[in-house]
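INTERNAL AUDIT FORM
Audit reference: QA-55
Scope: verify that the stored structure record matches its stored sequence.
Auditor: D.O.
Record contents follow.
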Amino acid sequence: MKTGIGAALAVLFLLLVGFLGWQYSVRGTDQSLTAALKLGTDFTLVDHNGNPITEAAFAGRPTMVFFGFTHCPEVCPTTLYEMAGWFEALGDEGRDLQAFFISVDPERDTPEIMKNYAEAMTDRVTGITGDPDEIAKVIAAWHVYAAKIPTDDGDYTMDHTASVFLMDENGAFKGTIAYGENPETAIAKLKRLVG
C-alpha cells in the first residue's frame, strides 16, 4: 500500500516539475499560457504633453506598457531606466517600438510631472495620466493590481503590478518582462516582439 502511494506521489511530483519547467521555458513569449489574454479597453486620457490620448495610440506598432507612479521609490525609476537601456541595446532594430507609462496615481501625477519623470530616463517613453475613474477602468481592463497604501506620515504610496506588458502591432498580448528580469532575456523578448 505504501509503495503504491509513494509511486503515485513520485509521478505527481515529476508531472509538476515537468509542467513548471515547460512554463518557465515559454514564460513571457508568444507561446505562453496567457498569450491569448485580451488586455485593454477604450479610453480617453492625457499624455505627458497635455494632449488627449486614446487606445488608438497602442495600435500599429509593437508596444511596451508599464503601470506605475512618479512617487515610486524603486520599481518605477528602475524600470524606466531599464527601458532606456533596452531601447539603446535594440538600436535601429527597435525604431518602431513604442512605450507607455500609465499612472496608477493620477491624483498626484499631472502631465507635467509625468513628462519630467519619464524624460529624466528616456524620451522614448510617453507618460499617460488623467481622470481617476478612467485610469481605474484602464487598470481593470489590463488586469493590473494597484492599491493605495497609507504611510506612517499620513501620506500614501501605491502598491502595483511591476511587469512590463508586451503587445504586438495588432494589439495582441505577447507576454511580460518581469521586474528585475535578466537583461539578455528581456532583450531577446523585445527582439521577438519587433521581429
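Auditor finding: record pair retrieved intact. The CA atoms of residues 76 and 180 lie 11 Å apart.
Action required: none
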